[in-house]
Design goal:
Elements (H helix, E strand, L loop, with lengths): L9 E5 L2 H12 L26 H16 L6 H4 L16 H29 L7 H13 L7 E7 L6 E5 L2 E5 H13 L2 H7 L1 H6 L1 H4 L1 H9 L5
Helix pairs in contact: 1-2, 1-4, 2-4
Length: 226
């Protein structure tokens, strides 16, 4: 974020509990999601005997996941809660009875698993010295591109998937695995984040709204930026 009196950018990072709970349910019930690009959870979630997940439950999970991922956390409260699961009746899933039954069966274990992931997320976000990571990241890109960052409001959603991956859902919302976020945090602290960003096109998408798509692509290809 820039200094007072100047136009500001904003980068927010969160790990929504409802998405962490949903990931647990998918894996514990061995649901065959149509979203085959989504990695398994990390740490791995042991599946229950027999799985318990039907094709109907998998389709319902996919629909729920798409909705939950798209909901703006700053939207009106009633809109946000449509993707949350509230015991004991889990009324938000009344239209998805097969998924609702799975959530009811495994909700306690899912909450315990999500609380462990939340502690890990907090440990990364409160690590000493990381307070200015986002500022350093944007400042380094500004230096590499030779101009000020454009205004943006970037939402980074961390989910405890396996691997070090990043997906851009739209220009101002990306999903990143916990391992990927931790790696970027460490490289920020090492002062080597520009090299990380410019050598990895996918990572560059995380900050593309900060410096401009054409500039980042040109730098990635070794061309001169405008």
């Amino acid at each position: 974020m820039r200094q007072a009196g100047q136009a500001s950018w904003l980068m927010s990072i969160d790990e929504p509990q409802n998405l962490v709970l949903g990931l647990f349910i998918r894996d514990v019930a061995a649901l065959s999601s149509a979203h085959s690009w989504l990695p398994p959870a990390a740490p791995a979630v042991p599946g229950v005997a027999g799985g318990g997940g039907s094709p109907a439950a998998a389709r319902q999970w996919d629909a729920w996941w798409d909705h939950a991922l798209a909901v703006d956390p700053h939207a009106p409260w009633l809109e946000v809660t449509t993707s949350w699961w509230g015991p004991p009746d889990f009324g938000s899933l009344d239209a998805a009875p097969q998924l609702q039954a799975l959530v009811r069966s495994h909700f306690g274990a899912a909450v315990r698993w999500s609380e462990n992931r939340n502690r890990e997320h907090i440990a990364v976000m409160t690590d000493p010295g990381r307070g200015a990571d986002e500022t350093r990241l944007v400042a380094d890109l500004e230096s590499a591109c030779g101009r000020r960052a454009a205004l943006f409001n970037l939402r980074v959603t961390e989910i405890p998937f396996a691997g070090r991956e990043l997906w851009q859902l739209h220009p101002e919302h990306v999903v990143v695995t916990a391992g990927r976020l931790l790696r970027l945090r460490r490289r920020c602290c090492d002062g080597d984040v520009v090299n990380e960003v410019l050598q990895d096109t996918t990572t560059a998408m995380r900050v593309v709204v900060a410096a401009g798509l054409d500039d980042v692509v040109a730098l990635r290809r070794g061309e001169a930026a405008p």
